[in-house]
């Protein structure tokens, strides 16, 4: 049976991070050297869905490392880049992210730019269409995936993009070591979530709405964890940046709402904590990951506070925040009677030309 494939892949994530670092660093260094020879002004990271959220998370690595005058990293949805392509200089570089190597918008971008701009593919699959179109390919480690909802491949692909940018900007070894330590932080977060799930799931299994929010690198983590809640548990879930959460979603939260607040270990966490306290006082059921403790007397609704160690460099936070939340989504799905290993949305994806889904 396939029913335990997804939790197994979630538990395999720390190993996938380590294997990607061990296997892909030489290639990342080589590709980064080729990138520097181009003296680029801009590096575009393009992907859709999970690959877009990986690109957004890795974009914080570029922000952290780029000095004045250095090329900037610009994450963009692949479809948006395809149909509304910025005016590109010859030395601009496009990094296309697709774990399967088959996402059609990324492929179309590479087909159009072939021979004009350096196109770098980041993928999980060595013989994919993306690897055939790319000038250079960085393959993530961790092995193939057997499930349609990206879990392990999210982490390994994101690790690979981080590596490419660390190598390009010639980051200190401290960055590389902190990226490696993401595996241990991830493992601890998964275990902490696992311990509290027997209490959490019965309290939230009938909810139909969830809001995930975070600041800084917690924002792309919120987008990805909300996507997992939709794809696995079939719950209406939104991911929001902390300050945007306050200006829109907050007004429709209530007693039948789950809020998931994500702390990334950066300057924005104080605002995320403030937002979490506010939503909790309004009666939402609250789960926090990686935030300081909120006194229970602040509100009357259930609250679970999952510890998650902050990285030294905030840009790596998604690697330890997303996997525990993905496990939450999986266990919630099973309690609600859904099997994410055989999702009923496959044909909806395929009807839109999204035939890249792994686990076929």
How is the topology of this model organized?
Elements: H1 5-11, H2 13-37, E1 42-47, H3 50-65, E2 72-77, H4 78-83, E3 93-97, H5 104-113, E4 118-123, H6 129-133, E5 136-139, H7 152-168, H8 173-204, E6 209-214, H9 218-233, E7 236-241, H10 242-247, E8 257-262, H11 269-281, E9 285-289, E10 303-306, H12 318-335, H13 346-351
Parallel strand pairs: 1-2, 1-3, 3-4, 4-5, 6-7, 6-8, 8-9, 9-10
Please describe what this structure looks like.
By secondary structure, this protein is α/β, with parallel strands linked by helices. It folds into 2 domains: 5-171, Rossmann fold (3-Layer(aba) Sandwich); 185-335, 3-Layer(aba) Sandwich (Rossmann fold). The protein has 13 helices and 10 strands. The protein has helices at residues 5-11, 13-37, 50-65, 78-83, 104-113, 129-133, 152-168, 173-204, 218-233, 242-247, 269-281, 318-335, 346-351, and strands at 42-47, 72-77, 93-97, 118-123, 136-139, 209-214, 236-241, 257-262, 285-289, 303-306. The strands form 2 sheets. The protein has a 5-stranded parallel β-sheet with strand order 2-1-3-4-5, sandwiched between helices. Strands 7-6-8-9-10 form a 5-stranded parallel β-sheet, sandwiched between helices. Helix 6 (129-133) links the parallel strand 4 (118-123) and strand 5. The longest helix is centred in the middle third of the chain and has 32 residues, at 173-204. The chain is globular, with a radius of gyration of 20 Å. Residues 350-356 have low confidence and may be disordered.
């Amino acid at each position: 049976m396939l029913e335990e494939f997804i939790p197994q892949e979630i538990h395999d994530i720390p190993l996938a991070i380590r294997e990607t670092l061990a296997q892909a660093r030489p290639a990342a260094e080589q590709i980064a050297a080729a990138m520097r020879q181009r003296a680029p002004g801009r590096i575009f990271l393009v992907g859709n869905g999970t690959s877009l959220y990986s690109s957004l998370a890795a974009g914080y690595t570029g922000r952290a490392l780029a000095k004045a005058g250095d090329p900037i990293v610009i994450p963009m949805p692949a479809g948006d880049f395809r149909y509304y392509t910025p005016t590109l200089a010859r030395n601009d570089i496009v990094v296309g992210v697709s774990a399967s190597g088959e996402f059609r918008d990324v492929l179309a971008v590479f087909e159009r730019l072939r021979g004009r701009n350096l196109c770098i593919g980041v993928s999980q699959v060595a013989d994919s269409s993306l690897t055939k179109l790319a000038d250079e390919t960085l393959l993530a480690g961790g092995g193939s995936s057997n499930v349609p909802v990206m879990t392990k491949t999210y982490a390994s692909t994101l690790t690979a993009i981080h590596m490419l940018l660390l190598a390009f900007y010639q980051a200190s070894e401290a960055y590389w070591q902190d990226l490696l330590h993401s595996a241990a932080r991830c493992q601890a977060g998964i275990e902490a979530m696992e311990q509290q799930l027997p209490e959490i799931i019965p309290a939230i299994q009938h909810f139909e709405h969830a809001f995930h929010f975070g600041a800084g690198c917690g924002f792309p983590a919120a987008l990805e964890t909300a996507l997992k809640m939709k794809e696995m548990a079939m719950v209406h879930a939104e991911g929001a940046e902390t300050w945007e959460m306050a200006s829109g979603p907050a007004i429709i939260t209530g007693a039948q709402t789950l809020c998931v607040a994500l702390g990334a270990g950066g300057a924005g966490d104080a605002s995320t904590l403030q937002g979490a306290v506010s939503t909790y006082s309004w009666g939402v059921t609250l789960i926090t990951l990686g935030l300081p403790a909120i006194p229970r007397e602040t509100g009357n609704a259930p609250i679970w506070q999952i510890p998650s160690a902050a990285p030294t460099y905030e840009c790596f936070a998604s690697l330890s925040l997303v996997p525990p939340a993905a496990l939450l989504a999986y266990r919630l799905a099973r309690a609600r009677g859904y099997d994410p290993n055989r999702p009923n949305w496959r044909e909806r994806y395929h009807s839109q030309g999204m035939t890249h889904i792994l686990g076929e």
